Amino acid sequence: MRRSRPSATAASRSPWPSWSLRRMRTHSPLWPIAPRPFDDEAFGSWFGRVAAKYGISVLELAQSSGVGVDVGEDASTWLGAAVPGASAVRRLAHLCRMPAAELRRLGPKPSVAPAKRFHYCYRCLYLNPADVTAPYWKAGWLSESGGRCSLHASSGSWVTANDLKSHPNMRRLLRFISRERYRAE
Ligand SMILES: [Zn+2]
């Protein structure tokens, strides 16, 4: 089981999330807290969960990390961001104090063309058996046929590039999806 693991130092240093973007840029070579990726998680989903921890956008996180993470124009495809190159992965892993292999194994690979719609299964999104507090986007949903769940007949939802642009981290995106779902019922 993988869970996000807040570090003891971060917990004692300051109440979350007062660690500001400015401090990330100027003072600390490492990020005080970063959730661990799940095995079948999309890289963009993990990156979006890190951004959510800091209350910033994926674009701001990409800029502050100093690595080339392609989140698309105005962060319109951040969920489908490919796993970046080896040196970028090493830097991200260093910032998060985790083995680079945990990031390297995520999908999608750069060779996969970015989708126009970002499919998901609502029930799988919210029923994360490893950690119910951490919904995440599966890498397998990012293909054109993604999101057709073998477990849940009611799957087949998606968000668009505009939705991603307006909700540029995982917390904001999940809130948006919940709201839309509530409206539709
Ligand atoms: Zn499902």
Provide structural commentary:
- The protein is globular, with a radius of gyration of 16 Å.
- With 185 residues, the protein is mainly alpha-helical.
- The protein has helices at residues 8-13, 21-26, 43-54, 58-65, 86-96, 100-104, 122-126, 161-166, 170-184, and strands spanning 117-120, 157-160.
- 40% of the residues lie in helices and 4% in strands.
- Zinc ion binds next to helix 7.
Brief description of this entry?
Helices cover 40% and strands 4% of the residues. It has 185 residues and is mostly helical. It has one domain.
Strand content: under 5%
Roughly how much helix do the residues carry, as a percent range? Answer: 40-55%
Radius of gyration over all CA atoms, rounded: 16 Å
As for the number of domains, it is: 1
Which small molecules are bound? zinc ion
Question: What sequence of helices (H) and strands (E) makes up the elements?
Answer: HHHHHHEHEHH
Give the strand tally. Answer: 2
Taking the alpha carbons of the first and last residues, their distance comes to 33 Å
* Average pLDDT over all residues: 83
Largest sheet: 2 strands, antiparallel
How would you describe the shape?
Answer: globular
As residue ranges, the low-confidence spans are: 1-18
* Sheet/helix structural class: mainly alpha
Instruction: Give me the side-by-side strand order of the main sheet.
Output: 1-2
Number of alpha- plus pi-helical segments: 9
Give a quick set of tags describing it:
9 helices; 185 residues; binds zinc ion
